[in-house]
Amino acid sequence: MESMSELARIGVAIDSDLLDKFDTLIGERGYTNRSEAFRDLIREELVRKSWDEGEADVVGTVTLVYDHHVRMLSEKLMDLQHDHHKNILSTIHVHLDHDNCLEVLIVKGKGKDVKKIAEALISTKGVKHGRLTVTTTGAGL
Ligand code: NI
Q1: Which strand (E) or helix (H) includes residue 117?
Q2: Order of strands across the sheet with 57-67?
Q3: Average of pLDDT values for 59-80?
Q4: Could you tell me if 114 and 105 are in contact, meaning their C-beta atoms sit under 8 angstroms apart?
């Protein structure tokens, strides 16, 4: 477990109209105080930066929706996953209906590698929709 660093207090000068909008926004999102909302915004940017840089270890999920009747599609997706087995920690496969499958892959590794794997899966012909959701290993936050 990460040790908590010392708590620092800062004062932020902000236009009152902008602050009103911020308060409305964070209220709608369920925050009960501004400090936690500020901290989450900062963490969000740090996580985004770690993905953009590409070298840091990151965690994410790849969501795919596809029709398993498309010729060779299931095999292609499976081959890709085996090629990158070190980066794919787990998969969930749900048969949505007679034709459509939903697959969620938990991926981990360097941001640039994970992005490439996600792009290869999502761009495979026959995948109807795909999305990479990026998050963090939590270390250093
Ligand atoms: Ni299925």
Answers
A1: helix 111-122
A2: 88-95, 100-110, 57-67, 127-136
A3: 96
A4: no
